[in-house]
């Protein structure tokens, strides 16, 4: 009983963090009818800045990392991203009233990774003084790319079987499209620059001081967008709402369990386990939607984007992050 009370207290404490407050504040002012809008160009610039900083720090860390220690968490990230898509394909996509391609696209979006949720998780961990491997953020593409590619492949196979064309699915164009997406391009560029150059000064003097402020604006935008997308979600099957509310936590807990195995086998830190769970519990808000629009054009964007933005992301940030931190404090000790 004491353990549950302790966990509950820590969970409530996490809900009061500034990062989560901006998200909830955005939802609140949108619900009250505020006309506040932030231009899409500013949103894209903020995401670019955040992912470049994450990539630069991750690349610098990889250059100094024990690659043997990083290998298992990276393989787990690939496995979890693919597993999330497979789970969605044989649960959500098979429910009554759900078009199969809509269900697969939704699973692909939830298997991919949200850069904003990753950034929020890193800030919360740092605010709480929870250490994690600097290269842990670089697990992002190991989960993101396989999930998107697998979702598009599964949808393509299903649609080709449905129309009886028998045409083979070309994998490489799908991979190429994913890699050329704006979010992954920024992240991979940052990783490469951090890995092969020495960007420490520009990170410390430019990216680092702006990081938390830009993240707070991004969380405000995400909150406003989440409320705006609620109307879209009401127009599609209620199963999407159930999936978006429950599965981010299921995905995160699966990753937490596998991350614990990596902790035991290769010494993956508790903070790294939490960050892996946060990544798995997120749903792509930048790289995923345009990639899936192009790869599964018959899927309804209102289904997968509405489910992700209006419910999935708030659940992943407001509930998932404090949940995994509280769980880690119970499992690993304070």
UniProtKB/TrEMBL annotation:
<keyword id="KW-0472">Membrane</keyword>
<keyword id="KW-0812">Transmembrane</keyword>
<feature type="transmembrane region" description="Helical">
    <location>
        <begin position="68"/>
        <end position="92"/>
    </location>
</feature>
<feature type="transmembrane region" description="Helical">
    <location>
        <begin position="209"/>
        <end position="228"/>
    </location>
</feature>
<feature type="transmembrane region" description="Helical">
    <location>
        <begin position="240"/>
        <end position="262"/>
    </location>
</feature>
<keyword id="KW-1133">Transmembrane helix</keyword>
<protein>
    <submittedName>
        <fullName>Sodium-dependent bicarbonate transport family permease</fullName>
    </submittedName>
</protein>
<feature type="transmembrane region" description="Helical">
    <location>
        <begin position="311"/>
        <end position="332"/>
    </location>
</feature>
<feature type="transmembrane region" description="Helical">
    <location>
        <begin position="45"/>
        <end position="62"/>
    </location>
</feature>
<feature type="transmembrane region" description="Helical">
    <location>
        <begin position="104"/>
        <end position="125"/>
    </location>
</feature>
<feature type="transmembrane region" description="Helical">
    <location>
        <begin position="179"/>
        <end position="197"/>
    </location>
</feature>
<feature type="transmembrane region" description="Helical">
    <location>
        <begin position="137"/>
        <end position="159"/>
    </location>
</feature>
<dbReference type="Pfam" id="PF05982">
    <property type="entry name" value="Sbt_1"/>
</dbReference>
<dbReference type="InterPro" id="IPR010293">
    <property type="entry name" value="Sbt_1"/>
</dbReference>
<feature type="transmembrane region" description="Helical">
    <location>
        <begin position="20"/>
        <end position="38"/>
    </location>
</feature>
């Amino acid at each position: 009983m004491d353990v549950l009370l302790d966990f509950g207290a820590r969970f409530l404490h996490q809900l009061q963090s500034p990062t989560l407050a901006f998200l909830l504040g955005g939802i609140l002012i949108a619900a009250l009818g505020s006309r506040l809008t932030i231009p899409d160009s500013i949103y894209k610039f903020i995401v670019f800045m955040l992912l470049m900083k994450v990539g630069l720090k991750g690349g610098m860390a990889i250059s100094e990392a024990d690659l043997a220690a990083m290998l298992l968490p990276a393989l787990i990230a690939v496995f979890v991203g693919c597993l999330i898509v497979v789970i969605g394909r044989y649960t959500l996509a098979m429910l009554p009233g759900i078009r199969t391609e809509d269900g697969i696209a939704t699973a692909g979006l939830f298997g991919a990774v949200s850069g904003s949720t990753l950034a929020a998780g890193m800030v919360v961990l740092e605010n709480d003084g929870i250490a994690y491997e600097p290269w842990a953020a670089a697990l992002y593409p190991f989960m993101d790319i396989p999930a998107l590619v697998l979702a598009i492949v599964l949808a393509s196979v299903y649609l080709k079987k449905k129309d009886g064309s028998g045409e083979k699915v070309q994998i490489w164009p799908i991979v190429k499209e994913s890699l050329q997406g704006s979010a992954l391009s920024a992240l991979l560029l940052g990783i490469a620059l951090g890995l092969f150059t020495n960007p420490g000064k520009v990170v410390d003097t430019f990216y680092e001081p702006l990081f938390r402020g830009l993240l707070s604006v991004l969380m405000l935008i995400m909150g406003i967008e989440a409320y705006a997308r609620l109307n879209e979600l009401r127009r599609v099957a209620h199963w999407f709402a159930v999936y978006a509310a429950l599965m981010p936590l299921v995905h995160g807990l699966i990753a937490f369990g596998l991350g614990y195995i990596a902790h035991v086998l290769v010494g993956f830190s508790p903070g790294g386990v939490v960050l892996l769970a946060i990544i798995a519990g997120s749903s792509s808000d930048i790289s995923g939607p345009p990639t899936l629009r192009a790869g599964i054009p018959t899927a309804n964007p209102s289904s997968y984007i509405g489910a992700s933005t209006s419910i999935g992301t708030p659940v992943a940030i407001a509930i998932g992050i404090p949940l995994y931190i509280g769980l880690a404090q119970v499992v690993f000790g304070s």
